[in-house]
Task: structure prediction
Amino acid sequence: MLIFLDADVEIPEELKGIFLSKVVEELGNFDVMELKKVVCPDSFFSSLVYYDYFSESVANYFLYKKLKRCVGINGAGFAVRRFIVEKIGGFKNFIVEDMEFGLDLFKKELQIL
Result:
């Protein structure tokens, strides 16, 4: 399993000792798992990030209801099985690599939690 986190992501103190085992447990039978993110909107930029995450979550919710699969993934924090990364050919040289990675997952009909 591979875990991707943005440089500004902080693991909560209460999860630091159990983070990896919790991710493995929650991943279960899924191919990819997006990690829950909490944004503290204490500045204009962080408020924009909050609304970006929120709107992406709402869009994915409705697309999942319709298609039974997610179309994208937020690259700020997610876990993926290593063979899945190999199966889709890794990350491409793309400006928004997490969006492109999510679309590759969608095209291969992989299960995102």
